[in-house]
Specification:
single chain; alpha/beta; 11-stranded mixed beta sheet; 5-stranded parallel beta sheet; 11 helices; 16 strands; binds adenosine monophosphate; binds magnesium ion
Length: 338
C-alpha cells in the first residue's frame, strides 16, 4: 500500500504531479466532468497501471486528454473537417471524439481497438498538468470500476486510497457526469452519440446529423459487439440497490414511497416533493443540478444503512439524457412506472 497525498492545484504540486506521471506513475486530477485517473497515454505500462488501480476490464478503452491540437494531430491518423468545427465550438469541454489512432497510441490505451477517443478538458489544473507533461494523459474516471464516478477529491480518496500516490483537489466537478462520446459515421455530415453528456444531442444537431446509439437507453444484448465497450459493464453503482421510479405525479410518488416507510429504503428526489415520510436525499430541481449531484447522491445512499434507494427519474432530453443513461446502469435497468 502506498501513501495517498491530497494536494492543492498550485504550480508546485502540478510540477510534482507531472514528475510522477513522467516517471510512469498515476495521479488523480480534477476535470469539469468527473475526476480522472491520469497516466501517460503513450506508455503501455502506465495505462496498464490504470486498469489495475481501477480494477477495470482490459477491453474498456481509455479516453486521452490533450491540452492543444498538436497533441490531437500526433495521436490520430487524420482529423475530419467536422471534428475541427466541433473542437472549435466545444473544446475545451465535455466532448470526446473518436478517431482512427496513430501507432504512437498503444493498444493498452485503446483497449485493442484501432481507434482512440480524445478530448480537451475544461479545467485549468488538468490543462496545466497536460502541458507540463508534454504528452496526452489517459484518464478514465478515478473510481473503482463499477462504483459511482468521483466528483470530489474525497470520492477519489474513498475508492483509491493506498493505490495511487497523489490526488489533486480541484473542488467539486462543475458538470458532474462524464463527457459526451461521439464517433463519425460519415466524415463530414453525420455523428453518433455513444455516451450522452453535457454536450447534448440538441447542441450537436446544429453541426451534423445526430443519432443516438441504440445502447444509450438499453442493456446491450449478451453477444452484441458494442461500439463503446464501456456500455457493456455494470456501472456507477453504490452498494445500495438502486431502483428508478418514473412518474409525473408527485402525489402518486409520495403514496408509493410512504407505503414503504419503515422498510430499509430511502428516496433520491428532486427536492420540491412534499409529504414524503422516508429518508431522502435531494439531487436537484434542474437538469444541471441533477447532473452535478447524481453521483454524490448515489454514494450518499450507502451511508444511510438502507437496502434500496428509489431514485426519481430525470427528464430524458437535453442534459437529462446523460443523467438517465447513468442512472439506468446504476439501477441495472430496474425501472418502476407509477
Ligand atoms: P471513462 O473513461 O471511464 O469515462 O470511459 C470511457 C468511455 O469511452 C467508455 O464508455 C468507453 O467505452 C468509451 N471509449 C473510449 N475509447 C473508445 C473508442 N476508441 N471507441 C469507442 N468507445 C470508446
Ligand atoms: Mg468511468
Amino acid at each position: 500500500m502506498m501513501t495517498t497525498e491530497i494536494v492543492r492545484p498550485d504550480i508546485q504540486s502540478l510540477r510534482r504531479a507531472a514528475e510522477i506521471i513522467k516517471g510512469g506513475g498515476l495521479v488523480a486530477m480534477p476535470t469539469e466532468t468527473v475526476y480522472g485517473l491520469a497516466g501517460n497515454a503513450y506508455d503501455p505500462d502506465a495505462c496498464g497501471k490504470i486498469f489495475v488501480a481501477k480494477g477495470r476490464p482490459q477491453d474498456n478503452p481509455l479516453i486521452i486528454h490533450v491540452s492543444n491540437l498538436d497533441m490531437l494531430y500526433k495521436s490520430v491518423k487524420y482529423v475530419p473537417e467536422l471534428a475541427l468545427r466541433l473542437a472549435e465550438r466545444f473544446w475545451s469541454g465535455p466532448l470526446t471524439m473518436i478517431f482512427k489512432k496513430d501507432s504512437i497510441v498503444p493498444d493498452a490505451t485503446s483497449g485493442g481497438l484501432d481507434t482512440v477517443a480524445v478530448r480537451m478538458p475544461d479545467n485549468e489544473a488538468a490543462l496545466n498538468l497536460i502541458e507540463l507533461c508534454g504528452f496526452p494523459l489517459a484518464a478514465p474516471s478515478a473510481n473503482l470500476s463499477g462504483s459511482p464516478s468521483p466528483t470530489s477529491a474525497g470520492h477519489v480518496y474513498e475508492d483509491l486510497c493506498g493505490r495511487i500516490p497523489m490526488i489533486i483537489d480541484g473542488g467539486e466537478c462543475r458538470t458532474g457526469v462524464e463527457s459526451t462520446v461521439i464517433c463519425f459515421t460519415d466524415d463530414d455530415t453525420a455523428i453518433k452519440i455513444l455516451r450522452p453528456g453535457a454536450v447534448t444531442a440538441e447542441m450537436l444537431a446544429e453541426y451534423a446529423d445526430v443519432t443516438l446509439d441504440g445502447n444509450v437507453f438499453k442493456k446491450p444484448d449478451e453477444n452484441e459487439r458494442v461500439l463503446s465497450p464501456g456500455m457493456k459493464y455494470k456501472h456507477y453503482s453504490p452498494k445500495t440497490e438502486i431502483i428508478i421510479v418514473e412518474t409525473d405525479n408527485a402525489q402518486a410518488l409520495a403514496e408509493f414511497l410512504n407505503e414503504k416507510a419503515g422498510e430499509k429504503i430511502c428516496a433520491v428526489l428532486y427536492g420540491d416533493e412534499t409529504g414524503i415520510n422516508v429518508p431522502r436525499i435531494d439531487y436537484g430541481v434542474t437538469a444541471e443540478q441533477r447532473a452535478h449531484n447524481l453521483f454524490a447522491a448515489l454514494r450518499e445512499t450507502d451511508g444511510l444503512g438502507v437496502k434500496t434507494a428509489y431514485v426519481r427519474c430525470p427528464e430524458k432530453t437535453g442534459l437529462g439524457t446523460a443523467v438517465y443513461n447513468r442512472l439506468l446502469r446504476a439501477a441495472a435497468f430496474r425501472v418502476v412506472k407509477i
